[in-house]
Amino acid sequence: MMTETIFTNAKIVTPDRVLEGSVKINEGEITDISDNVSGLPAATDFDGDYLMPGFVELHTDNLEKHFAPRPGVDWPQVPAVLAHDSQLAASGITTVLDALSVGDLNENSGRLRNLDKMAGAICEARERNLLRTDHYLHLRCEVSHHAMLELFEEYQDDENVRLVSLMDHTPGQRQFTRMDKYAEYYQGKYGMNDAELERFIEEKRINQQRYSAQNRVAIVDRCRGRGIPMASHDDATPEHVDEALENGVTVAEFPTTVEAAKKAHDAGLKVLMGAPNLVLGGSHSGNVSAMELGQAGVLDIVSSDYVPSSIIQGVFKLWQAGAKKTLPEAVATVSRTPAQIACLSDRGEIAPGLKADLIRVTMDEDTPVVANVWRAGERII
Fold it and tell me: Do 252 and 269 contact (CB within 8 A), yes or no?
């Protein structure tokens, strides 16, 4: 039987305010929140540090770099998952939807080769009780890929699938409206010369015309039938948002323009942007900055994307850099709101009866540092 745990003298970030006081935990759940400072010897004194809900991550492809740390290198699978998992936990992420690519623009990519390996290794690590963070799946469906639907059907009934995004990375639209940025990204990634890039672009445009519409309809039908939440991806125009609404999505991932983000937000979609965009002050693709959307009041969810540690920095950027968000509102973008999207009603905020997924954040001058992390009351960092 677990004994009661008490955290005291903490700045507790609740959904609507920052409360200086104490939190009690028993059997992995939060049992009480008060504005009193406990004098019990067994209580953990936070010395005024922040106590926040554990972060809920909806979109990270961080696992990919652990599976393939160098070109041509395939790392052992379960150790790769554990390295990824440790990074997440140390960043304050207690729940993650690992974003796995279902289809890709490059037929020879590691994403295609490693899809089943990554999903299998996550499952094995979970079954062996090796994971610190609670792992679920986010299937990133590249609708212009010829085998996307076949690949998706292998996972469509997996109870760990909590989100499906509808992606189309065909050049000249959405993320890569600017072809100079497209060339910079793909030539840098795959080492193509100009002639190879031109052939690559033409092939992708043909594939889009051939597969995108029918694949999108099929995925939407399967997700609706199974109650799987969906996200649009890289919406750039009002027409993209209209399509997303028609498809029944609940999240607009990485809209590339203010116009699209505002329309999505006003229509009730939750707008998700990357914390690296917040930290760096802009998009690597030359698209809209996340801070601009925050200042416009249309940023609802923040994701660590490709840098796990960026998530805590992103929270404080939103709070302190003029995005007109209180600290509880900024924290909600990485906890309560993503938990709601993933249908995880037992976590995401500090409240009695919810899971004791908690993080301690201390300030070193102006830098927030994740000092300790607990999942279901058990310390993991």
Answer: yes
Residues paired with 184 in a beta bridge: none
Q: What is the pLDDT of residues 311-369, one digit of tens each?
A: 999 999 999 987 789 999 999 999 999 999 999 999 999 999 999 999 999 999 999 99
Task: State how far the Cα of 72 lies from the Cα of 257, in Å rounded to an integer.
Answer: 36
Handedness of CA 71, 75, 81, 87 (dihedral sign): negative
Average pLDDT, the chain: 92
Token digits of residue 380: 């993991």
The domains of the chain, with CATH numbers, are: 1-53+348-381 (2.30.40.10), 55-346 (3.20.20.140)
The token pair that represents 283 in the structure block:
């998009």
Residue whose token pair is 């140390």: 90
Q: Which DSSP helix (H) or strand (E) runs through 44?
A: strand 44-45
Residue 194 backbone dihedrals phi, psi, to 5 degrees: -60, -40
Distance (Å, whole) CA 347 – CA 136: 14
Distance separating alpha carbons of residues 19 and 351, to the nearest angstrom: 12
Classify strands 18-26 and 29-34 as parallel, antiparallel or unpaired.
antiparallel
Q: Are 81 and 66 in contact (CB under 8 A)?
A: yes
CA angle 247, 55, 31 (to 5 degrees): 115
Q: How far is CA 199 from CA 168, 187, 202, 205, 283, in A?
A: 18, 12, 5, 10, 27
**What are the backbone dihedrals phi and psi of residue 220, each rounded to the nearest 5 degrees, phi first?**
-60, -45
Q: Is-above-0.70 flag for pTM?
A: yes
Residue located via tokens 């189309």:
168
Rounded Cα distance between 34 and 19, Å, is 8
User: How many other CB atoms are there within 10 angstroms of residue 73's CB atom?
Assistant: 9
| 310 sits in which H/E element | helix 310-320
Answer for the pair 68, 108: CB distance below 8 angstroms, yes or no: no
